[in-house]
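Readers of this paper often ask what the protein records in our data store actually look like. This encoding replaces a full spatial description with a residue-level series of whole-number codes. For reference, a complete record is included directly beneath this paragraph.
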Amino acid sequence: LWLLVLALAWLGLAQAASEGPGGETEDGEVAEEQEEVDEVLSDELGEEDGVLVLHEHNFARALREHRLLLVEFYAPWCHHCQALAPQFAQAAAILRNESGELRLAKVDTPAQPALSREFGIMAYPTLKLFRDGNRTHPVPYTGRLDAQGIVRWLQRRVGPSAVLLPDAAAAAAFIAAQEVAVVGFFQDLQGESARVFYEVAGDLVDVAFGAAKAAELFEAYGLVDDTVCLFKKFDEERADLPAQQGLDAAKLSRFVRVHSLQLIMEFSSETSERIFSAKIPHHMLLFINATEAAQLELRDAFREAAAPFRGQVLFVLVDVGGYGAGVLPFFRLTPADAPTLRLVKIETNRKYQMEEDAFSAPAVRAFVQAVLDGKVKPRLQSAEPPEDWDTKPVKVLVGKTFEQVAFDETKNVFVKFYAPWCSHCKEMAAAWEELGERYKDHKDIVIAEMDATANEMENITIHGYPTLHYFPAGPGRKMIEYKSNRDVESFSKFLENGGTLPEEPPVVCSNPMCPREAPA
């Protein structure tokens, strides 16, 4: 599972009625339909696995009866929603035992289009917190999608998100009890900076936050103006963020995420989420075999090289014989390649490699700086093209052949970029093969696919799977992303219309119950 997450980050949801003999169930079916309508129109609050089941007719009642309501907007066919379901139910059970004012609920969004439009649901699952019946300004959920993450995120919103530290003894005890502790020193705890501090503390539930106002605490920690201090039991032990000119929530959040990480993070199941949630734009990776003493010694120079780049580049140690073995294919490495270094630019997933590995601190620093300065070209990986890559209806592209095919000025080329493990890619595989069969005899149309986890292109970055790009014939190296339905007929309309979908006439519904847009 983590390989999937890593690849995305190091590369990122008719009801049939049966009749009985002789049509005897006709009246029964009508009765069942009427019962269903009556049930939908009711505002009764039903439950599944301890989670409230909401629709447009009972949503308002749920808001009235529950002060804090976390609602998951899901789709039944969404794999991510299916994975979240047991965690969501577990969190609901924990919260019902601990607090009567916190409840979890869910909405089958495709079945409730009015709620989907009202709350602007664009992806699944989407979680929103409704507080004190406020329907117009729900709080977007920003925590982890597991039971403990959901519980901790909500618990921060029941009481104060930061502990009040009244004196030096309380502050010292609070700091000593935490691996990482964040303390906001504010002369006015009701001011705007303190408000932002409490807001961020409510989101970053994996870090302990404290707030201090007493003059003796400013003096004890050598402060004159409002400041946020992060205390930690490693590296430089303390980092300060001045707040006398105010606090920005995004900058404070980044400050805490960056400085709560060690200079060198060992890649593991416990650290992987923190590594990527810090949103540091570059990762410098040292792959070693932790059972080899000589390779373990390389950590010291690697750590020495890391200090000047905190916040710009995250230095990560990957054990090729341990948890890190799962990510080796992404870098086209094997355990025998250790020790070796790679730098990854997270936004584009571009990978950079020394001409020859050099592990001294000066050499590593010089290489990292050269990449940041744009003086090093990325190493673009490519699989070898299969011998029959162009003999089948769907052409199989790799990094080495992509340019010559996609930008052939005599061809219109439609390419599916996929990942072998992607369930959505597997679901549309048959449609793509059928499309290839349909256009295999068209001399000016090429249907192709490329494994984007094993092949890279210089100026195109794939952020999700599947991604579909159309490269029209002619000069200019044009590229159009396809974002509509993933079925053969839609694909064909797109191709026949030159890379756009024809506008469909509006559907007129004669049923008076059809939803209509509000008048302007």
In short: The chain is about 30% helix and 20% strand. The chain has four domains: 47-156, 163-260, 264-373, 395-497. The first strand starts at residue 46 and ends at 48. The longest helix spans residues 79-98.
